[in-house]
Protein backbone atom coordinates (compact mmCIF):
# COMPACT_ATOMS: atom_id res chain seq x y z
CA UNK A 1 0.00 0.00 0.00
CA UNK A 2 1.32 3.41 -0.86
CA UNK A 3 1.42 5.66 2.17
CA UNK A 4 -0.75 8.56 1.09
CA UNK A 5 -4.33 9.50 1.57
CA UNK A 6 -5.26 9.24 -2.09
CA UNK A 7 -8.87 9.13 -3.20
CA UNK A 8 -11.37 7.69 -0.79
CA UNK A 9 -13.21 4.45 -1.40
CA UNK A 10 -16.92 5.04 -0.95
CA UNK A 11 -19.32 2.34 0.06
CA UNK A 12 -22.51 3.18 -1.94
CA UNK A 13 -19.76 3.91 -1.39
CA UNK A 14 13.93 1.03 16.16
CA UNK A 15 12.83 -2.21 17.95
CA UNK A 16 9.33 -2.76 19.19
CA UNK A 17 9.28 -4.37 22.61
CA UNK A 18 6.21 -6.11 23.95
CA UNK A 19 4.06 -4.15 26.37
CA UNK A 20 2.11 -5.88 29.11
CA UNK A 21 -1.66 -6.06 28.94
CA UNK A 22 -4.33 -7.67 31.06
CA UNK A 23 -5.38 -10.09 28.35
CA UNK A 24 -7.24 -10.34 25.07
CA UNK A 25 -9.64 -7.49 24.35
CA UNK A 26 -8.78 -5.65 27.56
CA UNK A 27 -7.17 -2.25 27.20
CA UNK A 28 -7.12 0.72 29.53
CA UNK A 29 -7.93 3.63 27.24
CA UNK A 30 -8.63 6.02 30.06
CA UNK A 31 -12.36 5.80 29.45
CA UNK A 32 -12.11 7.86 26.29
CA UNK A 33 -14.76 6.97 23.75
CA UNK A 34 -14.04 7.12 20.04
CA UNK A 35 -15.92 9.54 17.80
CA UNK A 36 -18.91 8.52 15.72
CA UNK A 37 -18.42 8.68 11.94
CA UNK A 38 -19.91 11.88 10.57
CA UNK A 39 -22.27 9.97 8.28
CA UNK A 40 -23.85 8.24 11.31
CA UNK A 41 -24.33 11.19 13.64
CA UNK A 42 -27.85 12.36 14.48
CA UNK A 43 -29.24 15.00 12.13
CA UNK A 44 -30.18 17.71 14.64
CA UNK A 45 -28.66 20.85 13.14
CA UNK A 46 -31.10 23.00 11.15
CA UNK A 47 -29.65 25.51 8.68
CA UNK A 48 -31.18 27.69 5.98
CA UNK A 49 -30.42 26.51 2.46
CA UNK A 50 -28.92 29.90 1.62
CA UNK A 51 -26.39 29.66 4.46
CA UNK A 52 -25.23 26.22 3.34
CA UNK A 53 -24.96 27.33 -0.28
CA UNK A 54 -22.91 30.40 0.68
CA UNK A 55 -20.57 28.26 2.81
CA UNK A 56 -20.14 25.80 -0.04
CA UNK A 57 -19.22 28.64 -2.44
CA UNK A 58 -16.73 30.07 0.09
CA UNK A 59 -15.18 26.62 0.50
CA UNK A 60 -14.87 26.22 -3.26
CA UNK A 61 -13.04 29.56 -3.35
CA UNK A 62 -10.56 28.24 -0.77
CA UNK A 63 -9.92 25.23 -2.99
CA UNK A 64 -9.50 27.48 -6.04
CA UNK A 65 -6.90 29.54 -4.18
CA UNK A 66 -4.93 26.38 -3.39
CA UNK A 67 -5.28 24.95 -6.88
CA UNK A 68 -2.87 22.12 -7.59
CA UNK A 69 -0.18 23.42 -5.22
CA UNK A 70 -0.46 20.47 -2.82
CA UNK A 71 0.09 18.06 -5.68
CA UNK A 72 3.05 20.09 -6.94
CA UNK A 73 4.60 20.25 -3.46
CA UNK A 74 4.51 16.59 -2.48
CA UNK A 75 2.04 14.63 -4.58
CA UNK A 76 -0.92 15.64 -2.41
CA UNK A 77 -4.48 16.16 -3.62
CA UNK A 78 -5.19 18.15 -6.76
CA UNK A 79 -7.80 20.89 -6.99
CA UNK A 80 -10.22 18.40 -8.54
CA UNK A 81 -9.64 15.92 -5.72
CA UNK A 82 -10.20 18.59 -3.06
CA UNK A 83 -13.48 19.57 -4.73
CA UNK A 84 -14.48 15.91 -4.60
CA UNK A 85 -13.66 15.76 -0.90
CA UNK A 86 -15.79 18.84 -0.28
CA UNK A 87 -18.74 17.11 -1.90
CA UNK A 88 -18.03 13.96 0.14
CA UNK A 89 -18.07 16.08 3.31
CA UNK A 90 -21.51 17.40 2.46
CA UNK A 91 -22.73 13.97 1.37
CA UNK A 92 -21.90 12.74 4.87
CA UNK A 93 -23.31 15.81 6.63
CA UNK A 94 -26.63 16.38 4.82
CA UNK A 95 -29.52 14.23 6.06
CA UNK A 96 -32.80 15.88 5.02
CA UNK A 97 -34.19 18.85 3.08
CA UNK A 98 -37.40 20.75 2.61
CA UNK A 99 -37.85 23.58 0.15
CA UNK A 100 -39.66 26.82 0.73
CA UNK A 101 -43.00 25.51 -0.57
CA UNK A 102 -43.03 22.10 1.13
CA UNK A 103 -43.78 21.48 4.80
CA UNK A 104 -42.55 17.89 4.71
CA UNK A 105 -38.96 16.78 5.12
CA UNK A 106 -37.44 14.40 2.59
CA UNK A 107 -34.32 12.30 3.02
CA UNK A 108 -31.54 13.84 1.01
CA UNK A 109 -27.85 13.89 0.34
CA UNK A 110 -25.72 16.60 -1.19
CA UNK A 111 -25.31 14.79 -4.48
CA UNK A 112 -29.08 14.83 -5.01
CA UNK A 113 -29.82 18.38 -3.93
CA UNK A 114 -26.69 20.13 -5.19
CA UNK A 115 -28.17 20.83 -8.69
CA UNK A 116 -30.92 22.83 -6.96
CA UNK A 117 -28.60 24.77 -4.64
CA UNK A 118 -28.58 27.99 -6.68
CA UNK A 119 -32.36 28.08 -6.99
CA UNK A 120 -34.48 30.38 -4.88
CA UNK A 121 -36.65 27.52 -3.57
CA UNK A 122 -33.53 25.82 -2.22
CA UNK A 123 -32.06 28.90 -0.63
CA UNK A 124 -35.33 29.71 1.11
CA UNK A 125 -35.59 26.10 2.22
CA UNK A 126 -34.07 24.31 5.21
CA UNK A 127 -31.54 21.50 5.63
CA UNK A 128 -30.91 19.10 8.49
CA UNK A 129 -27.21 18.45 9.05
CA UNK A 130 -25.28 15.91 11.12
CA UNK A 131 -22.76 18.61 12.04
CA UNK A 132 -23.19 22.31 12.77
CA UNK A 133 -22.30 24.62 9.94
CA UNK A 134 -19.54 26.15 12.07
CA UNK A 135 -18.24 22.62 12.59
CA UNK A 136 -18.13 21.99 8.84
CA UNK A 137 -16.41 25.34 8.39
CA UNK A 138 -13.74 24.31 10.91
CA UNK A 139 -13.30 20.89 9.30
CA UNK A 140 -12.67 22.43 5.90
CA UNK A 141 -10.34 25.11 7.28
CA UNK A 142 -8.23 22.39 8.94
CA UNK A 143 -8.26 20.34 5.74
CA UNK A 144 -6.87 23.22 3.70
CA UNK A 145 -4.67 25.04 6.23
CA UNK A 146 -3.26 22.07 8.14
CA UNK A 147 -3.73 19.38 5.48
CA UNK A 148 -5.25 17.07 8.06
CA UNK A 149 -6.45 13.84 6.45
CA UNK A 150 -10.08 13.96 5.34
CA UNK A 151 -10.76 10.61 7.03
CA UNK A 152 -9.53 11.91 10.39
CA UNK A 153 -11.71 15.00 10.13
CA UNK A 154 -14.84 12.94 9.46
CA UNK A 155 -13.75 10.05 11.75
CA UNK A 156 -14.58 7.76 8.85
CA UNK A 157 -12.93 5.36 6.43
CA UNK A 158 -15.14 3.69 3.84
CA UNK A 159 -13.18 0.49 3.16
CA UNK A 160 -14.58 -2.46 1.25
CA UNK A 161 -18.16 -2.81 2.54
CA UNK A 162 -17.26 -1.54 5.99
CA UNK A 163 -17.58 1.90 7.57
CA UNK A 164 -14.61 2.10 9.92
CA UNK A 165 -13.85 4.64 12.63
CA UNK A 166 -10.41 6.22 12.26
CA UNK A 167 -8.58 9.13 13.83
CA UNK A 168 -5.16 10.41 14.88
CA UNK A 169 -2.96 7.59 16.07
CA UNK A 170 -4.13 4.95 13.61
CA UNK A 171 -3.18 4.40 9.97
CA UNK A 172 -5.99 5.09 7.51
CA UNK A 173 -6.87 1.93 5.54
CA UNK A 174 -6.05 2.33 1.84
CA UNK A 175 -8.02 1.06 -1.13
CA UNK A 176 -4.95 -0.91 -2.24
CA UNK A 177 -5.12 -3.07 0.88
CA UNK A 178 -8.55 -4.28 -0.21
CA UNK A 179 -6.69 -6.48 -2.72
CA UNK A 180 -4.89 -8.34 0.08
CA UNK A 181 -8.14 -8.65 2.01
CA UNK A 182 -9.92 -10.15 -1.01
CA UNK A 183 -7.11 -12.66 -1.58
CA UNK A 184 -7.29 -13.79 2.05
CA UNK A 185 -11.09 -13.94 2.05
CA UNK A 186 -11.20 -15.97 -1.15
CA UNK A 187 -8.63 -18.36 0.29
CA UNK A 188 -10.76 -18.88 3.39
CA UNK A 189 -13.96 -19.41 1.41
CA UNK A 190 -12.24 -21.98 -0.82
CA UNK A 191 -10.17 -23.78 1.85
CA UNK A 192 -12.35 -25.51 4.48
CA UNK A 193 -9.33 -26.57 6.54
CA UNK A 194 -8.40 -22.90 7.10
CA UNK A 195 -11.91 -21.62 7.86
CA UNK A 196 -11.63 -22.46 11.54
CA UNK A 197 -8.39 -20.55 12.07
CA UNK A 198 -6.82 -19.30 14.08
CA UNK A 199 -5.59 -16.40 11.94
CA UNK A 200 -3.44 -13.39 12.84
CA UNK A 201 -3.42 -9.79 11.63
CA UNK A 202 -0.01 -8.43 12.61
CA UNK A 203 0.12 -4.65 13.02
CA UNK A 204 -3.66 -4.46 12.84
CA UNK A 205 -4.09 -0.68 13.09
CA UNK A 206 -7.78 0.10 12.60
CA UNK A 207 -8.54 -3.62 12.33
CA UNK A 208 -9.45 -3.55 8.64
CA UNK A 209 -7.70 -6.77 7.62
CA UNK A 210 -8.74 -8.59 10.80
CA UNK A 211 -12.37 -7.65 10.13
CA UNK A 212 -12.25 -8.83 6.51
CA UNK A 213 -10.75 -12.18 7.55
CA UNK A 214 -13.15 -12.63 10.46
CA UNK A 215 -16.09 -11.80 8.19
CA UNK A 216 -15.05 -14.53 5.74
CA UNK A 217 -14.82 -17.05 8.58
CA UNK A 218 -18.21 -15.92 9.84
CA UNK A 219 -19.74 -16.47 6.39
CA UNK A 220 -18.47 -20.04 6.56
CA UNK A 221 -20.14 -20.48 9.95
CA UNK A 222 -16.69 -21.29 11.31
CA UNK A 223 -15.83 -20.86 14.98
CA UNK A 224 -12.22 -19.74 14.55
CA UNK A 225 -10.70 -16.53 15.86
CA UNK A 226 -8.56 -13.78 14.38
CA UNK A 227 -5.83 -12.50 16.68
CA UNK A 228 -5.22 -8.79 16.02
CA UNK A 229 -1.80 -7.65 17.26
CA UNK A 230 -0.46 -4.12 17.54
CA UNK A 231 2.05 -2.37 19.76
CA UNK A 232 -0.06 0.77 20.01
CA UNK A 233 -2.95 0.72 22.54
CA UNK A 234 -4.82 3.39 20.60
CA UNK A 235 -4.75 1.29 17.44
CA UNK A 236 -6.14 -1.68 19.36
CA UNK A 237 -8.92 0.53 20.72
CA UNK A 238 -9.91 1.34 17.13
CA UNK A 239 -9.74 -2.34 16.19
CA UNK A 240 -12.05 -3.23 19.05
CA UNK A 241 -14.53 -0.51 18.13
CA UNK A 242 -14.55 -1.43 14.46
CA UNK A 243 -14.97 -5.11 15.25
CA UNK A 244 -17.95 -4.22 17.42
CA UNK A 245 -19.43 -1.99 14.72
CA UNK A 246 -19.02 -4.78 12.17
CA UNK A 247 -20.72 -7.29 14.52
CA UNK A 248 -17.54 -9.38 14.56
CA UNK A 249 -16.16 -8.70 18.03
CA UNK A 250 -16.88 -12.31 19.00
CA UNK A 251 -14.38 -13.45 16.36
CA UNK A 252 -11.54 -10.96 16.96
CA UNK A 253 -9.15 -10.91 19.91
CA UNK A 254 -6.77 -7.98 20.35
CA UNK A 255 -3.30 -8.38 21.82
CA UNK A 256 -0.82 -5.61 22.60
CA UNK A 257 2.75 -6.37 21.61
CA UNK A 258 5.24 -6.75 18.81
CA UNK A 259 4.47 -9.09 15.94
CA UNK A 260 4.48 -12.68 17.24
CA UNK A 261 5.51 -11.88 20.84
CA UNK A 262 1.96 -12.04 22.31
CA UNK A 263 1.12 -15.18 20.32
CA UNK A 264 3.55 -17.71 21.80
CA UNK A 265 0.63 -20.00 22.60
CA UNK A 266 -0.17 -20.17 18.86
CA UNK A 267 3.27 -21.24 17.61
CA UNK A 268 2.80 -23.79 14.86
CA UNK A 269 -1.00 -23.38 15.01
CA UNK A 270 -1.90 -20.39 12.82
CA UNK A 271 -3.92 -21.21 9.71
CA UNK A 272 -3.12 -17.84 8.18
CA UNK A 273 -1.24 -14.57 8.66
CA UNK A 274 -1.99 -11.23 7.02
CA UNK A 275 -0.01 -8.06 7.58
CA UNK A 276 0.40 -4.56 6.23
CA UNK A 277 3.44 -3.59 8.33
CA UNK A 278 5.55 -0.43 8.27
CA UNK A 279 7.74 -0.51 5.17
CA UNK A 280 8.73 3.03 4.23
CA UNK A 281 12.54 3.49 4.16
CA UNK A 282 13.41 6.15 6.76
CA UNK A 283 15.07 8.36 4.13
CA UNK A 284 11.76 8.53 2.25
CA UNK A 285 9.66 9.66 5.23
CA UNK A 286 10.38 13.42 4.79
CA UNK A 287 9.13 13.19 1.19
CA UNK A 288 5.71 11.79 2.04
CA UNK A 289 2.73 13.99 1.31
CA UNK A 290 1.76 16.21 4.23
CA UNK A 291 -1.46 14.34 4.99
CA UNK A 292 0.62 11.28 5.78
CA UNK A 293 3.98 12.54 7.03
CA UNK A 294 2.58 15.21 9.36
CA UNK A 295 -0.43 13.37 10.71
CA UNK A 296 -0.37 9.57 10.46
CA UNK A 297 1.55 7.60 13.11
CA UNK A 298 5.25 7.21 12.35
CA UNK A 299 5.16 3.78 14.01
CA UNK A 300 2.90 2.58 11.20
CA UNK A 301 5.12 4.04 8.46
CA UNK A 302 8.82 3.63 9.32
CA UNK A 303 10.20 0.37 7.92
CA UNK A 304 13.04 0.42 10.46
CA UNK A 305 15.96 -0.23 8.09
CA UNK A 306 17.52 1.66 5.21
CA UNK A 307 15.60 -0.45 2.69
CA UNK A 308 12.37 -0.57 4.71
CA UNK A 309 12.38 -4.38 4.78
CA UNK A 310 13.20 -4.99 8.44
CA UNK A 311 9.69 -5.58 9.76
CA UNK A 312 8.61 -7.58 6.72
CA UNK A 313 11.59 -9.89 7.13
CA UNK A 314 10.80 -10.42 10.83
CA UNK A 315 7.27 -11.45 9.88
CA UNK A 316 8.48 -13.84 7.17
CA UNK A 317 10.81 -15.57 9.62
CA UNK A 318 8.11 -15.80 12.26
CA UNK A 319 5.58 -17.13 9.77
CA UNK A 320 7.83 -20.15 9.16
CA UNK A 321 7.50 -21.08 12.83
CA UNK A 322 3.92 -20.03 13.55
CA UNK A 323 1.98 -21.30 10.54
CA UNK A 324 0.55 -24.79 10.30
CA UNK A 325 1.50 -26.93 7.31
CA UNK A 326 0.00 -25.33 4.19
CA UNK A 327 -0.82 -22.19 6.18
CA UNK A 328 -1.46 -18.91 4.32
CA UNK A 329 0.85 -15.88 4.36
CA UNK A 330 -0.20 -12.56 2.82
CA UNK A 331 1.98 -9.44 3.03
CA UNK A 332 1.75 -5.91 1.67
CA UNK A 333 5.01 -4.27 0.61
CA UNK A 334 6.37 -0.98 -0.71
CA UNK A 335 6.32 -2.15 -4.31
CA UNK A 336 8.30 -4.15 -6.83
CA UNK A 337 11.74 -4.06 -5.18
CA UNK A 338 10.29 -5.15 -1.83
CA UNK A 339 8.07 -7.79 -3.38
CA UNK A 340 10.94 -9.31 -5.34
CA UNK A 341 13.22 -9.30 -2.28
CA UNK A 342 10.61 -11.03 -0.11
CA UNK A 343 9.79 -13.55 -2.81
CA UNK A 344 13.47 -14.52 -2.97
CA UNK A 345 13.73 -14.67 0.82
CA UNK A 346 10.74 -16.99 1.08
CA UNK A 347 12.08 -19.21 -1.73
CA UNK A 348 15.41 -19.69 0.03
CA UNK A 349 14.05 -20.04 3.57
CA UNK A 350 14.41 -23.53 5.04
CA UNK A 351 12.69 -25.59 7.71
CA UNK A 352 14.70 -27.33 10.42
CA UNK A 353 14.90 -30.46 8.25
CA UNK A 354 16.47 -28.49 5.41
CA UNK A 355 13.44 -28.54 3.13
CA UNK A 356 11.90 -25.40 1.60
CA UNK A 357 9.75 -23.51 4.10
CA UNK A 358 7.24 -22.11 1.59
CA UNK A 359 5.60 -23.00 -1.70
CA UNK A 360 3.08 -21.38 -4.07
CA UNK A 361 4.95 -18.09 -3.68
CA UNK A 362 3.57 -15.36 -5.91
CA UNK A 363 3.49 -11.58 -6.31
CA UNK A 364 0.17 -9.81 -6.86
CA UNK A 365 -0.22 -6.27 -8.19
CA UNK A 366 -2.30 -3.56 -6.55
CA UNK A 367 -5.08 -1.50 -8.13
CA UNK A 368 -2.52 0.65 -9.96
CA UNK A 369 -0.69 -2.36 -11.42
CA UNK A 370 2.26 -2.06 -9.02
CA UNK A 371 3.64 -5.41 -7.73
CA UNK A 372 2.63 -4.96 -4.12
CA UNK A 373 1.59 -8.17 -2.35
CA UNK A 374 3.51 -11.36 -1.60
CA UNK A 375 1.42 -14.49 -1.09
CA UNK A 376 2.79 -17.87 0.02
CA UNK A 377 1.85 -21.17 1.66
CA UNK A 378 3.98 -22.94 4.22
CA UNK A 379 5.41 -26.38 3.56
CA UNK A 380 5.17 -28.98 6.27
Structural commentary:
The protein is α/β, with parallel strands linked by helices. Helices cover 35% and strands 18% of the residues. The chain has helices at residues 49-66, 69-74, 79-93, 110-113, 120-123, 133-145, 150-154, 177-190, 208-219, 233-245, 290-293, 310-322, 336-348, and strands spanning 45-48, 94-98, 106-107, 126-129, 157-159, 162-164, 199-202, 226-230, 252-256, 270-275, 323-332, 358-365, 371-378. The strands form 3 sheets. A 7-stranded mixed β-sheet has the order 9-8-7-10-11-13-12, with helices on both faces. Strands 1-4-2-3 form a 4-stranded antiparallel β-sheet. Strands 5-6 form a two-stranded antiparallel ribbon. Helix 8 packs parallel to helix 9 (208-219). The longest helix is centred in the first third of the chain and has 18 residues, at 49-66. The protein is elongated and about 80 Å long.
TL;DR?
With 380 residues, the chain is α/β, with parallel strands linked by helices. Helices cover 35% and strands 18% of the residues.
Output the strand order for the largest sheet. Answer: 9-8-7-10-11-13-12
* Strand content range: 15-25%
Reading the helices and strands in chain order gives: EHHHEEHHEHHEEHEHEHEEHHEHEE
- Residue windows where pLDDT falls under 50 for at least 5 positions: 1-31
Helix content: 25-40%
Helix/strand/pairing category: alpha/beta
Q: Label the overall shape.
A: elongated
The radius of gyration is 23 Å
Number of helices: 13
Please describe the topology of this protein:
Blueprint: E1 45-48, H1 49-66, H2 69-74, H3 79-93, E2 94-98, E3 106-107, H4 110-113, H5 120-123, E4 126-129, H6 133-145, H7 150-154, E5 157-159, E6 162-164, H8 177-190, E7 199-202, H9 208-219, E8 226-230, H10 233-245, E9 252-256, E10 270-275, H11 290-293, H12 310-322, E11 323-332, H13 336-348, E12 358-365, E13 371-378
Parallel strand pairs: 7-8, 7-10, 8-9, 10-11
Antiparallel strand pairs: 1-4, 2-3, 2-4, 5-6, 11-13, 12-13
Amino acid sequence: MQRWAGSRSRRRCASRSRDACDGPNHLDDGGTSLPTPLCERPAVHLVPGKDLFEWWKDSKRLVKAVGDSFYEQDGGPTEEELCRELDWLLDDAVAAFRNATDKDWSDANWKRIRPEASQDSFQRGEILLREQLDGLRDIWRRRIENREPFQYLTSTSFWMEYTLVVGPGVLIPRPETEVLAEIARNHILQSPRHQFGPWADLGCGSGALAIAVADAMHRCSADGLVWAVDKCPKALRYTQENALRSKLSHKIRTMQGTWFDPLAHLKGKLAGIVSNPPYIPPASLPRLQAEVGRHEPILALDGGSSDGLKELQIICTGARDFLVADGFLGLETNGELHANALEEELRTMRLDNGSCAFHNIRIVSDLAGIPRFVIARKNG
